[in-house]
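[audit] Reproducing an earlier prediction to check determinism. Same input, same settings, fresh worker. If the tokens differ from the archived copy the diff job will pick it up downstream; this log only records the rerun itself.
[audit] input (221 residues):
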Amino acid sequence: MKHLTGTQQKGLACEIIRFCSKWALWRGTVLYCGGRKYEWCEEHAEFYALNHVRVTEGVRPEDEDNMVLQELLALDAQDGEEPVLYLTGELGDLLGGPGEYTAEFSALSREAQAELLADEELLGDLADALPVDFGTPALDPMEFDSRETYLELEFEMEAARVEEAIARLSRERIECDGGALPSHIIREFKTLLEKYGLKWSGIWGAASCRYDERSVASNNM
């Protein structure tokens, strides 16, 4: 099986950091890859043009005082194959937990904001997740002369609800307990790993990334 080179491991870490920054997950996420620890820092520190990144050489996840990480290390040791990368914190919570995602809309990258505003399903999910009451009354189909009239009004009310959601997004905290948005973010992370022939597994709070034999086999065909 072809393993990632040191340069490729740095590239992988860089892409994951960029991914975390896009979805406002970087401040609370820590990566361990290639003998290095990558974490957010307050000061201006760049790593491959990415800001707020502290890189510490010679750090092994086995030496970290993190109970969740140590639990995952013990589970991985039973499999016999050493993962390429470990991560803990907010991204670990999202991957290993029940799909909870919390973030300030203003903290998302412009790329992420544009994705949300361009996707009706994601935007509708956000409208449900925002802690505000949009005051949209339930419609009774039996009160309308025709189904077409009912559907037209329902569509208009939903459109108004989404517009209100957009207006409130910049001032509200997104809180999703499962749904379209967390699934969208997880799928994007899975696609990122597949570029490197990797897959992830984990527990709530931590995840490990290892080689996916099926992906490697298909790339070698």
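[audit] rerun output stored. Observation attached for the diff report: Helices lie at 6-22, 67-79, 90-96, 110-118, 120-129, 147-169, 180-194, 213-219.
[audit] end
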